Amino acid sequence: MTLSELPPRTPVIVESVDDSQPNDPIARRLRELGFVAGERVEVVARGPFGAEPLLVQVGYTRFALRRAEAARVRVVAVAAEAAA
Known about the structure:
Number of strands: 5
Mean pLDDT: 90
Helix content: 10-25%
Distance between the termini: 17 Å
Radius of gyration: 12 Å
Shape: globular
Number of helices: 3
Largest sheet: 5 strands, antiparallel
Strand order of the largest sheet: 4-3-2-1-5
């Protein structure tokens, strides 16, 4: 599942950030912002027009992401991560 598909207020764990090309600047920036494997994230809210942007919380920090950016972040359910 990707972050863009996630219903609001569902905590998940980041599995990976997908690069769409070698040295992808957007994927690199997402990692720099804290979207790294094992980090807990959740979608706090969605924008009014086309559900964009997404308000996403990583730790205690919130970011507004486009759906295309959020689609690069692969996530796994918190319960599944705890059981693994």
